[in-house]
């Protein structure tokens, strides 16, 4: 795969143009992130005033680096940007990320400057990410690259995340210790002068380390092309989009971008739905859904069984089924008979199955096994509120270890110490959900993807055009 | 105020009937919670086999306690419950909480036993909370009572919370370290054999330590009476309800209760809305709204100004305005002129006001002051995504210190270390919000309350009856 995006996400060497020795400056913090996460490639820092920063050798100019540079992160002041790009493209570097801000987003003058830079890039075989962006991550153990300002250490997963907003990207990275989101690759695309969501869609579809693609977008840079990938059935992986600028106020706030996919949110919705592209309501729903695709088989239908040790949270879980087009499964008489042998007589063998607060790890495991074996059940939501007498870990791990082709989504409402323990001690490390309302959204979204990929569409680009 | 609920929430002495010396048993853990939170009253433990548990003296029987018992927590096995209640009512104890489960919730036989117990109570001047519940909390420094299984130490606030589900109550208590929810009083009401949400509504309306009342309910025990308090304009405090069993599947899961307020969720919604009772979508919305009422003045209208240092999160905040019946305020020319002197030329003085990532604590404070002074602005949402070069604490505290009669809701998306620091070091300790989507829900809910209390209703109980 000789894509330039191979250079972006799998660079053997990277160069920070504008690295700094001053703590709290962006040029220092980004270098620190690279160091801390343990990037496996070669690092060249360009800084004429320092010999060395954080143990990396500094070079006075780009030209003075004699070795090949796969990826360049440019964060020099605006007046030095053009010269840096010229030197890099002369050197044959194809993957450029321009962090520096102050271009199109600031008005007419900045827009002209952005055009000039783009011109430079177009005249070479390089590509440009940004400007006005915040970096790139590949968490794979062979790469271990965190070239962003946020020195968090993301756990490796199979998800790719592209954010048009640097702040949203940073906020997500800063929340990783609580949310347990796992990335494979992350990229902040800023003004999208050259590289857009479309380029990434194409690359990530082919990258075998990616199984689910997520976006925070405020506009579609070339919506028609984006959709064409789906019309042509080139995209087989699930794609989840959180779109900022849904309402007229929000669209005004996001300001208009050229070539955006329709200004009406209804149009965006209709088109995305048509092609099984999942629209998330918020960041929580987006990453929960991504966890669903990463960790669980796609359910074959919409019939859900719920098992719990606590009435209230199970009711909240059931309440969210309808609005996600799911239904409570009718358990077969055989299933109920088997459940009767396990469930406490004062509990319930109807759906939702109630094990009462005394429900043990063994009971939870057995009941989940019986439920997934029921032909009327497509997915299970297992809700565990940790009581004092039944520790959560064995319950959770027991269920995680069940080997089946139907998904079991676990909601855990544990004692405060649980999450740290799970992160450290879990063997399975399968994604858990924190709120009883979460799994229904995930199942509903997974089915939107599945149903679209089962039924072939007869939509052609011509038919779609009127929507634009 | 000689209400029996004074004995429940402000007891000078309490008795645990069925205290245990065995760690992990409910009778031990509840006693441990009492000890750990530092209850200020006298504690009597009833346990014939121990002399002392956790430093508290044990008594072999209730009768052997010679002093007055204000509140009794009963957690003995079912066969000893009736006898315990008899002894307590003979002694003149009025406030009884029956933790023990296995009554109405288990079927016909349990229902009969529950009736017998209720009979006993009705023949005395005592009241009964439960059975099948998980305890009571008053976090006021004069009381410091946590008589639940959950040994968390809630921070004191002005909110009261009543949960029909013990598990939901426990889950909320277990999440306190992350959610920063502050209680004044909490009670788990379980089967609601005697004491219901109505009794608590009446008591909390009068209790000056409570300013906002929240409920998790699965049924209204006597819905007509509940609404009558509002028809008669006896309730002046905001009331927020999360109702489990919204959909037909959810209602089925919650099972039917006698005297419930209509089985159709549309009816529940219509009636609650009519009386300005706030219906929360989930626990997050409920407690965020409670924080709104606790910490902020009620906005006078629906015109919202947004200020931010980051485009993306501001767009997500603006996107939630419409669905909560809010609008983006039109800032006056004077306001924009003043903002121009502060905001970076590449930022924006339109609503949402954008200070760019470099926006300082001083700029955030000044801009917020200008925005709340604008006659076209009823509320401000201030969104701060913490960049490396501008630490969050001074920004947050600076805004918290602004003295005004308009609310400023702060959304903070900080570096991972922030929350602990804020809990420890903040002088103001005003509630912050974590997601850009949160404040719009809060403002919308506060306005539902305000608008209802401004416009007198002409609904009479007769007119309401057909809804039941």
What does this structure look like?
The structure is a homodimer of 468-residue chains. Chain A is 37% helix and 19% strand. By secondary structure, the first copy, chain A, is an alpha/beta fold. In chain A, the strands form three sheets. Chain A has a seven-stranded mixed sheet, sandwiched between helices. A seven-stranded mixed sheet of chain A has the order 9-8-11-10-12-13-14, sandwiched between helices. In chain A, strands 15, 16, 17, 18 and 19 form a five-stranded parallel sheet that branches. At the A-B interface, helix 5, helix 6, helix 9, helix 12 and strand 16 of A face helix 5, helix 6, helix 9, helix 12 and strand 16 of B.
Oligomer: homodimer
Low-confidence stretches of chain A: 256-262, 456-468
Instruction: Give the proportion of residues in helices of chain A.
Output: 25-40%
Beta-strand content bin of chain A: 15-25%
Question: Reading side by side through the largest sheet of chain A, how are the strands ordered?
Answer: 3-4-2-1-5-6-7
Please give the radius of gyration of chain A in angstroms.
25 Å
Largest sheet of chain A: 7 strands, mixed
DSSP strand count of chain A: 19
The span between the termini of chain A is 33 Å
Produce a short descriptive summary.
The structure is a homodimer. The first copy, chain A, is an alpha/beta fold.
Question: Can you lay out the helices and strands and say which pair or pack?
Answer:
The structure is a homodimer of 468-residue chains.
Chain A lengths: L3 H6 L3 E5 L8 H12 L4 E5 L5 E2 L2 E4 L11 E4 L6 H11 L3 E4 L9 H15 L4 E3 L5 E4 L6 E4 L6 E9 L2 H9 L1 H4 L2 E7 L8 H10 L5 E6 L5 H9 L7 E5 L4 H7 L10 H10 L3 E2 L3 H13 L7 E6 L2 H9 L7 E2 L4 H8 L12 E2 L6 H13 L5 E7 L6 H9 L7 E6 L4 H8 L12 H17 L6 H4 L4
Parallel strand pairs in A: 1-2, 1-5, 2-4, 5-6, 6-7, 10-11, 10-12, 12-13, 13-14, 15-16, 15-17, 15-18, 18-19
Antiparallel strand pairs in A: 3-4, 8-9, 8-11
Helix pairs in contact in A: 3-4, 11-17, 14-15
